[in-house]
Every structure is written in C-alpha cells, then in structure tokens.
Design goal:
Length: about 300
C-alpha cells in the first residue's frame, strides 16, 4: 500500500483506471486516525481501484510535484491524470465518494472513446452534403463550422468542418464527435486514430456525373484543370479501389454504401435501411423531405 518516489510513476501514472493516493506524515494525528480506514478500503477495492499511501517526509519529490502542503491530502488519479483533491480528515464515505466519482469519470471517458463516430464520406460532388442534411433532419446533429458558406454549387450548404483536414496532426475534435455526424472526404479517413470506432455512410455516384459536376463548379469559379475527365476517372477509380481494400481490413469501421442516383429515385427504401444501420432512432419522414431532385443537375444521359 505504501509507495515511494521511485515507484510512483509505475504504480500511479502508468496505471489504467482509478488510483487514490493518501499523502500523509507520521507526525500527523488525523493521518494516524485514518490509517485503519485507508487500509480497509485498500483491501475492499482490490481489483477495482488502487488505494495507496505516500509518506511526504520520505518522498519529498512526489509531495513537491503535487504541491502537498497539508496532510492528510487525498488525490484521485484516473488513467494517470490527477483529478479530485481533498485535504483534512475525511469520513470513510467521503473517501468512497472520491473513488466512485473517479470510477464514473473513467467510465464516461471510456464511453466517449468507444462510442462510434458517424461519418459521411465519398468523392467530392458525390452527394455528401445532401446526406448530411438528411441525417441532420433525422435528428443527428451535424458537426460543422459554416466557414464555407452556401453558394450556387451547394445552395443548401457544404456542411464542412475545417478541423477534419488536420486530423493527422490533431485529432482532438473527435472528442466532440460522438452522437453527431461529420463530413470527411474519403482520403482523410486514412488519418483517423485506430483506437476509435467509426460508422461510415459512403456515397457512390456515377463517375461521369461526379466529373461533370466538378467541371461545372470549376467553370463557375473561373478555374480549370489540365487533367482530362478520362484521366481523372482513372485516378479516382484507382484511389477508390485502394480505399475499398483498406477499409475492409479495418475492424473498427462499419460502412453503409449509398448510391446517389438510387437515393433520388427511391429514397424511402434506402432511408429505412440507413436508419437501421445507424441504430433505428432517426426521423425517417423528415429525412425523406430533404431529398431534392432539383439538385440533380449533372444527370447521365
């Protein structure tokens, strides 16, 4: 139960779960009074949480690191991170309360990490924005920032979130993603951390329509490309084949494919299946109202 400067990191900072540390001193009467309580809880919580003790006079480096100026001081750690701190003589129930509160924090953290993150993905101009609107209408909040505003090419909005573009460098935005839906171009899915779970709604659209839509958008913005449609089609097909192979090998990804063309022709059947994939809690009638065939402007001949 007693730990020292030498093994504090191993016993506390490197431990997954809950650790409660009792900082005490031999000259402290309240510390002596609480010693039997701490020992009893140490035995009771064995296998569930660590209840440990540090003598501040013999382990001054640790006491200084955590600014222990009063004894006894109880400091809770969750997965190596310091949390609740209480000083002075505590009752047994107060100590239990610190342990249980830390357990709740640990569980909440685990729930966030394991909860699947819903992503809409696909090629640019494959219907991802319409799918985002559908899911939002169905009751799934969209993670977006409105930096890119609606225009002629996407009159209902782009539903983009700039932070996803920096996922490889900073994936902290994922902490706010559970329970929401976010749009990511397919290439960015390679950057997602492997320790999380993902549900991907992947949009497929006839390649000639994707290319025609992209060319129309470039033309409206006074831009052009030196790559022909034929070359771009080969490039996209190669990239999608690579992506399909990669994602099938990832156990932490579930994928539901949506054909954009079919969605516009028979949305209700598709929406029913999509709702089941996402947990059967969406408002399917509201989703169906979002489907707008008037936006189907680059229809194949």
């Amino acid at each position: 139960m007693q730990i020292t400067d030498a093994n504090f990191a191993q016993e506390v900072l490197e431990t997954e779960g809950v650790v409660l540390v009792d900082f005490w001193a031999s000259w402290c009467p309240p510390c002596k009074m609480m010693e039997p309580v701490v020992r009893r809880l140490h035995e009771e919580y064995a296998g569930q949480a660590k209840i440990l003790a540090v003598n501040i006079d013999r382990n001054q480096a640790t006491a200084a690191a955590y600014k222990i100026n009063t004894v006894p001081t109880f400091l809770a750690f969750v997965n190596g991170q310091p949390g609740e701190r209480r000083s002075g003589a505590l009752t047994e129930n107060q100590i239990r309360g610190m342990v249980e509160k830390s357990h709740a924090q640990d569980k909440a953290s685990a729930d966030i990490t394991t909860a699947p993150i819903t992503i809409v993905s696909g090629l640019p101009r494959s219907g991802t924005s319409m799918m985002m609107r559908m899911l939002e209408a169905g009751g799934l909040p969209a993670l977006k920032d409105e930096i890119r505003v609606a225009d002629q090419d996407n009159p209902r909005g782009y539903y983009e979130f700039e932070a996803v573009k920096q996922t490889a460098q900073d994936a902290a935005w994922l902490n706010d993603a559970p329970g929401k839906v976010v749009k990511m171009v397919y290439r960015l899915l390679f950057d997602l951390p492997a320790e999380r779970n993902y549900r991907v709604v992947f949009m497929r659209r006839t390649m000639s329509e994707v290319l025609a839509s992209q060319q129309a958008m470039l033309s409206r913005n006074g831009q052009s490309t030196n790559i022909s449609d034929a070359e771009l089609a080969v490039l996209y097909q190669r990239e999608l084949a690579k992506f399909d192979t990669w994602i099938k090998q990832r156990a932490n990804f579930e994928v539901f494919e949506v054909n954009y063309n079919t969605m516009l022709e028979n949305s209700q059947t598709l929406i029913t299946s999509l709702n089941e994939f996402l947990g059967s809690a969406l408002d399917t009638q509201s989703m169906a109202k979002v489907v707008d065939p008037t936006l189907y402007r680059q229809r194949s001949a």
